[in-house]
Amino acid sequence: MPSANDIRKGNVITYNGEPHLVLESQHRTPGNLRAFVQAKLRNIRSGSSSVVRFGSTDSIEFLMTESKPYELSYTDRDGYHFMCPETFEDLVLSEEFIGDAKFFITEGGTVNLLFVEGAPVQLDLPSAVELEVTDAPEAIRGDTSGAAQKTVYTSTGLAVRTPLFIKNGDRIKVGTEDKTYLGRV
Questions:
Q1: Domain containing 76 — which CATH number?
Q2: What is the pLDDT of residues 126-138, one digit of tens each?
Q3: pTM above threshold 0.70
Q4: How far from 51 is each of 1, 2, 30, 31, 62, CA to CA, in Å?
Q5: Is the terminal CB of the chain with fewer CB neighbours within 10 Å at N or C?
Q6: How many domains does the chain have?
Q7: What SS3 state is found at 75?
């Protein structure tokens, strides 16, 4: 059986009889004490998170996971409809499941879904996405001292701080981790 040293971010393990997704994992060896693995876990069923310490030799049960690419077809009152490009199966995910990822997904955009025992548990976004600017106020003349910025809104409703030269219709690259402007496309 695998030990706690094998725990990595993105693994799904059984902890207290429930499936948990590993959000973070650190192996620690303090001074005179025994080594341990500290992991931040999220319960897949309830959504609650906790920080847990495992002895480095504790046995851990890993669950089988599968990651598949899915393409956003459309959204409606039922939720977000995704299609698998390989099997053409339709999958509907609720807005609660999608969360803040809704600001980075556009129709036709591809995301990876993590499945545990046949059920989707996590949506993996790329590190950066391209979005279209739909609302950009005009720059104020003379506001050029230092790194002047303005707030623009994308087609998905995301507010992003950008340089003054960004206009309506421009496509910009946005980091999904911290919602920052990375450049114009």
A1: 2.40.50.140
A2: 899 999 999 998 8
A3: yes
A4: 22, 20, 18, 21, 18
A5: N
A6: 3
A7: strand
